[in-house]
Automatic annotation (TrEMBL):
Name under which the protein is recorded: Aspartyl/glutamyl-tRNA(Asn/Gln) amidotransferase subunit B
Subunit structure comment from the entry: Heterotrimer of A, B and C subunits.
Enzyme class: ligase
Gene3D superfamilies: 1.10.10.410, GatB domain, N-terminal subdomain
Amino acid sequence: MEKEYETVIGLEVHVELATKTKIFCSCSTEFGGAPNTHTCPVCTGMPGSLPVLNRQVVEYAIAVGLATNCDITQYCKFDRKNYFYPDNPQNYQISQLYLPICRNGHVEIEVNGSKKNVGIHEIHMEEDAGKLIHDEWEDCTLVDYNRSGVPLIEIVSEPDMRNAEEVIAYLEKLRTTIQYLGASDCKLQEGSMRADVNLSVREVGSDKFGTRTEMKNLNSFKAIARAIKGERERQIELIEEGKKVVQETRRWDDNKEYSYAMRSKEDAQDYRYFPEPDLVPIFIDSDWLKRVKAAQPELREEKLLRYEKEYDIPRDDALIITESRKMADIFEETTKLCGDAKKTANWLIGETMRLVKENEMDVADISFSPENLAKLIKIVSKGEINNIVAKEVFEEIFKNDIDPEKYVEEKGLKSVNDEGTLKEVIQKIVDENPKSVEDYKNGKKKAIGFLVGQTMKAMKGKADPAAVNKILGEILNAV
């Protein structure tokens, strides 16, 4: 009988926090600066330099902990994690091992209609390392320390996930929650959210864990899903051949869809952790905790319930709108200004998402204002422009955030609603197309579509299609 295997997965998720300055110095955290320009003696590990903790890092860590149902460690401290690598300028990293700021949390995920909790073992604060750039032309490796000292939280899950779908659902839940909190933009492509996958396999029914490996270099949800599938197959193959799975760190190559060993897996002993002597312990008193709790925004689950009740929009629409805090903010502000939640939802779900995909953008980078979308919805509702023109105007709003009222006026795009003018144009179209008129009379009702199209063309798209259909019907029926 063929053996069946179960995959056991836990994640270590690193999230760069959205502070303006680094965790222990006042250097900028902005992404994309020229190499080694966002640096100082502290974040380049110069002798004699001393770290000073950024208070905002602690507040973001608390906020994420509260939102993921963690216990907050009110007395916590930093530790030194010693390792020697070119992108680690001090030859140690300031992290938290013994008293991490958050512990014993969980988030609820839903996959194929089934809900489950994924446990969070801990969340700890730490500093990021620099970045190695391998120059193939010069056959050398360069180091950029701009990222060194950027504040991170590391979210360590329990090994509660069993497949790629659960992993992606967990990561999406974390990303949405952290974005709503404003703690990070969580852009995988820029490295502000990174996931390392710890994976092992065991026979179905076994309560003992198999030997796990850790996979790095995963910068998209698709790469994570492929890496899980690839590593599961590799481990099962080894077991079936009677070989042992080695506990090690592996690097995933998404182009080749293959992982290869980087180093044998270290444990805490290898890093020679000890309390960080240059930083005092952190005491989070009850008042500080209350202030952070009071500042927590409405999260996605609460918004979903409120949108269905308050705005009476379908759950599927609410799910799309609330996926991003940016989209939810635009929706609420636009609805407040124009008074029509359903039309606002339609513009966001339809045209906005279409243009986001076409431009290969992140929803967080949408730059148009709710005021201009609300104005567009109002002038369409008044019949000043038709839906065809409205889509053209919206593209300009999306690209350049133009004022739709001024744009329509300047471009002469207002709908022609004068019945006399419309009748005159339609009568001319009918006279010029006797064959279509005859087809219509012979029961080919589709012929009216051609005549409507010709009328809209003659009116340069500025006629109201409903009015055109009405007048055209009247003229055809009178022929």
